[in-house]
């Protein structure tokens, strides 16, 4: 029995499916942990494959590669350095489990399987994994560690079993994606489990972007008294060293460790957007991004996020004026690019509009101009951006926000085209808030400039698509503060019309928004992916039928 144990929490950013690169990251972190005197290094859930591996784990040859790579890597732990606790999909008796594997002494020394498989929200682990039995502790260098895996911490059974079977410290590997308020929720749950078990708890979370999901890291440790004794930063890879000693009361206590305050709301949203975009572009090997810079708030913020994520030299803005584009918008787009230091080209769409008018004139004979011609403008811009993307390889970055996507205030194959929609889960009122926040703050690790990056006039002028004379968004939509509150009630809270009306909204406005939300489902189904920041991301978490005869009850 030992009275001291140094545990490193390795907050790693894996790439799903890139097993060799992921093991290299673990190997490099282990070398640092060894240099800093760690006895054990704990990695996030399924770190060997990246999380979530989804249907990759249904392929037997994929699991063959995983097992071979893990066993070969385990042999390296014969060097006397830190033991490793890594996550990987693992077969046992022909069944595939979400597993935590102890690599020590040159072998896979112990295996524990996840018991509670989440099957809600963004999670569908029951499709691909089989739950394990209630686990007992793992002996690591003479200390009995309980290893509940992610969801196993969210209920009482697994940790109660571990405590009753002699665990001394709880170590929880996680793949927990970011959403607003999630960090506080994790800590509160961990406090509950510590209170119930009387055991200290270490929480190790993945970091990085994976398609729509952003993992924020923010790993932490709690003492047996529920005191926060260690805290890693959010949105960055990090190795957090914790040093534990058995007290006279036979309870393990942590010496003073690094504690980095978690990001506040707007900083956290911005950090998630930057990391999500950066990893989507880099892990998919795009040279950069190209986006329409219209002179409006959405494209200005999207460009700022892109520059902070990738650097100005990898961001290409394109202003595509029509006859309805104001000089103010031209100037604001130019100022956005100048503030950020990114490239800006101007490609007028007037020739395309004229060509479509001539081409469609016989078919449209006798019909007055309407929204059709407005959408042709938007689609001409989409074609232009996709052509530039095809020619130069940069990914088209869509700039639409959640308010617009909710009510269908967007054009299929026009402003909705692109490979990634960085503001897809960001309501319009939040777009304004984080734009003002970014103007006042330079985030840690940002590649863009300090100071103002969104022009001041863009923050105060009425938003407009400029597809016809004197147009503003509020010609079609309620004011955004009203719209966003109604949408959050409908989308995140699943409230009915009477409950929303009781909040002070006019019944006719609520019903109008409900109808627009309902009718736009087919558009959202064709929208590009974008980073999750709220409780209910379209398509991934909110799945409504396109053909749907149910109307909200007024």
Biggest beta sheet attributes: 7 strands, mixed
Helix content: 25-40%
Class by alpha and beta content: alpha/beta
- Spatial shape: elongated
Number of helices: 16
Mean pLDDT: 94
**Widest sheet, order of strands:** 5-4-3-2-1-14-15
Unreliable stretches (pLDDT < 50, length at least 5) are none
Distance between the termini: 67 Å
Strand content: 15-25%
**What is the C-alpha radius of gyration, as a whole number of Å?**
26 Å
How many β strands by DSSP? 20
How would you sum up this structure, described in words?
- The chain has 554 residues and is α/β, with parallel strands linked by helices.
- Helices cover 35% and strands 18% of the residues.
- The protein has a 7-stranded mixed sheet.
- Strand 10 and strand 11 form a beta hairpin.
Question: Care to give the gist of this entry?
Answer:
Residues 5-246 form the CN hydrolase domain. This protein is α/β, with parallel strands linked by helices and 554 residues long. The chain contains 16 helices and 20 strands.
Features:
single chain; alpha/beta; 7-stranded mixed beta sheet; 6-stranded mixed beta sheet; 18% strand; NAD
Helices and strands in order:
Elements: E1 4-11, H1 19-35, E2 40-42, H2 60-74, E3 83-92, E4 95-104, E5 107-113, E6 138-140, E7 143-146, H3 157-164, E8 169-174, H4 182-197, E9 201-205, E10 207-210, E11 213-216, E12 220-222, E13 228-231, E14 238-246, E15 252-254, H5 265-283, E16 289-292, H6 297-310, E17 315-319, H7 327-340, E18 343-346, H8 350-360, H9 371-392, E19 395-398, H10 402-407, E20 420-421, H11 428-440, H12 456-460, H13 480-491, H14 497-501, H15 507-519, H16 521-524
């Amino acid at each position: 029995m030992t009275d001291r144990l140094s545990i490193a929490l390795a907050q790693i950013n894996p790439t799903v499916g890139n097993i060799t690169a992921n093991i290299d990251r673990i190997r490099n972190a282990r070398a640092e942990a060894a240099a800093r005197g760690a006895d054990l290094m704990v990695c996030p859930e399924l770190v060997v494959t990246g999380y979530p591996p989804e249907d990759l784990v249904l392929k037997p040859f994929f699991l063959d590669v995983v097992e071979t790579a893990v066993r070969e890597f385990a042999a390296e732990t014969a060097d006397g350095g830190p033991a490793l606790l890594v996550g990987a999909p693992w077969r046992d008796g022909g069944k595939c489990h979400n597993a935590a594997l102890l690599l020590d002494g040159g072998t896979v020394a112990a295996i524990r399987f996840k018991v509670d498989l989440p099957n809600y929200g963004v999670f569908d682990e029951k499709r691909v994994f089989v739950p394990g039995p209630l686990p007992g502790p793992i002996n690591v260098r003479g200390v009995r560690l309980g290893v509940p895996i992610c969801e196993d911490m969210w209920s009482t059974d697994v940790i109660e079993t571990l405590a009753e079977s002699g665990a001394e410290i709880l170590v929880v590997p996680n793949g927990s994606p970011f959403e607003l308020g999630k960090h506080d929720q994790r800590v509160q749950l961990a406090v509950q489990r510590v209170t119930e078990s009387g055991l200290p708890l270490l929480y190790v979370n993945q970091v990085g972007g994976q398609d729509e999901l952003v993992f924020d890291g923010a790993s932490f440790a709690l003492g047996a008294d529920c005191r926060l004794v260690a805290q890693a930063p959010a949105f960055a890879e990090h190795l957090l060293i914790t040093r534990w000693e058995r007290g006279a009361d036979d309870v393990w206590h942590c010496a003073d460790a690094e504690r980095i305050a978690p990001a506040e709301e707007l900083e956290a949203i911005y950090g998630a957007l930057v990391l999500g975009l950066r990893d989507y572009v880099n892990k998919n090997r795009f040279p950069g991004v190209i986006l329409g810079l219209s002179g409006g708030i959405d494209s200005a913020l999207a460009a700022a996020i892109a520059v902070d994520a990738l650097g100005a030299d990898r961001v290409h803005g394109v202003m595509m004026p029509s006859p309805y584009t104001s000089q103010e918008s031209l100037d604001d787009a130019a100022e956005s690019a100048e503030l950020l230091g990114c490239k800006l080209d101007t490609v007028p769409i007037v020739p395309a509009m004229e060509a479509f008018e001539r081409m469609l004139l016989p078919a449209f004979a006798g019909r007055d101009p309407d929204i059709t011609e407005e959408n042709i403008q938007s689609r001409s811009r989409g074609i232009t951006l996709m052509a530039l993307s095809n020619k130069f390889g940069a990914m088209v970055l869509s700039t639409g926000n959640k308010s617009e996507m909710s009510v269908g205030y967007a054009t299929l194959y026009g402003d909705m085209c692109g490979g990634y929609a960085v503001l897809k889960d960001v309501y319009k009122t939040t777009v304004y808030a984080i734009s003002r926040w970014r103007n006042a703050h330079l985030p840690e690790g940002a590649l863009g400039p300090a100071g103002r990056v969104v022009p001041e006039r863009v923050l105060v002028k009425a938003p407009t698509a400029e597809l016809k004379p004197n147009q503003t968004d509020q010609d079609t939509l309620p004011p955004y503060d009203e719209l966003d509150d109604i949408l959050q009630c409908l989308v995140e809270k699943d409230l009915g019309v009477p409950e929303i009306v009781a909040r002070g909204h006019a019944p006719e406005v609520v019903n109008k928004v409900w109808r627009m939300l309902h009718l736009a489902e087919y558009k959202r189904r064709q929208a590009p992916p974008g980073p999750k920041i709220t409780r209910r991301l379209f398509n991934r978490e909110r799945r409504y039928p396109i053909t749907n005869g149910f109307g909200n009850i007024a």
